[in-house]
Design a protein that fits this description.
Blueprint: E1 14-19, E2 23-27, E3 30-33, H1 39-50, E4 54-59, E5 71-74, H2 78-88, E6 93-96, E7 103-105, H3 115-118, E8 125-127, H4 131-136, E9 145-152, H5 156-167, E10 171-176, E11 188-189, E12 191-195, E13 198-201, E14 205-206, H6 207-223
Parallel strand pairs: 1-4, 1-6, 4-5, 6-9, 9-10
Antiparallel strand pairs: 2-3, 7-8, 10-12, 11-14, 12-13
Helix pairs in contact: 1-6
The chain binds cytidine-5'-triphosphate (CTP) and calcium ion (CA).
Cytidine-5'-triphosphate binds next to helix 4 and strand 9.
Cofactor: FMN; Mg(2+)
EC number: 4.1.1.36, 6.3.2.5
Pathway: Cofactor biosynthesis; coenzyme A biosynthesis; CoA from (R)-pantothenate: step 3/5; Cofactor biosynthesis; coenzyme A biosynthesis; CoA from (R)-pantothenate: step 2/5
Length: 224
């Protein structure tokens, strides 16, 4: 596998990709999570590796199998994902495609909550660390290129533009995940790439094609 990827514009570049959902335990048998198959993040990691990058693929429990030719770091929670990303640094670029749960249960039970004894559970939440924001705003050791995603159901460009500023990342890949688009859980994606240079609306295409185009753009940016 290594020999297959021994050439390409990303040879010698180390890139961290986060992907999939995170699972935040309620008790040993229950969790809260975001909807995410991991398909887009997996396709991006595969496309970067195909261009020669050394990819560290930090993945939550995804439906889609991780790609070949990458270093896989499997995690469950947002807090574990942050630690895995910090351990994987430094890197030339980071692509944060994971659907990280924004909240975790503040004190998960170490035994199964029972219907009969415990009544209705009163879950209290705590906010999870923002991995993209943490990496975007780190001074020394920040990857030269930090790419985030913004999955929105409404006011997509407006929300994604604000998100880019708030997080401090270089690029945001904005996509419309309103149920009518069928993108969530589907094989296609329709994205707008938001950078310093403005907004680029890409035509609707397969998730692999989005990944390849993004990988080419990352290669050009790291070369330039
Ligand atoms: N992200 C992250 N860590 C979090 C939450 C989000 O790294 N705890 C990253 C995602 O991987 C994605 C980007 O931040 O690249 C945007 O995620 P999103 O959920 O759209 O943004 P939030 O800031 O959580 O805002 P919202 O309230 O819209 O969910
Ligand atoms: Ca969120």
């Amino acid at each position: 596998v290594a020999a297959q990827f021994a050439a390409g514009p990303l040879v010698g570049k180390r890139i961290i990709v986060t992907s999939g959902p995170t699972h935040e335990p309620i008790d040993p048998v229950r969790y809260i999570a975001n909807r995410s198959s991991g398909a887009q993040g997996t396709a991006i990691a595969a496309a970067l590796a195909a261009l020669g990058a050394q990819v560290v693929f930090v993945t939550g429990p995804a439906e889609v199998a991780p790609p070949q030719g990458v270093e896989v770091v499997a995690v469950e929670t947002a807090q574990q994902m942050l630690v895995a990303v910090e351990v994987a640094l430094p890197a030339d670029a980071g692509v944060f495609a994971a659907a990280v749960a924004d909240w975790r249960v503040a004190s998960a039970s170490d035994r199964k909550l029972k219907k009969s004894h415990d009544g209705l559970p009163k879950l209290e939440f705590a906010e999870n660390p923002d991995i993209l924001k943490t990496v975007s705003r780190m001074g020394a050791g920040r990857p030269g290129l930090v790419v985030g995603f913004a999955a929105e159901t409404n006011d997509v460009i407006e929300n994604a533009t604000a998100k880019r500023a708030r997080k401090g990342c270089d690029w945001i890949v904005a996509n419309d995940v309103s149920p009518a688009t069928g993108i969530m859980g589907g094989t296609e994606n329709a994205v707008t790439l938001i950078t310093d240079a403005g907004n680029e609306e890409w035509p609707r295409m397969g998730k692999a094609a989005v990944a390849e185009r993004l990988a080419q753009r990352i290669a050009a940016a790291l070369a330039g």
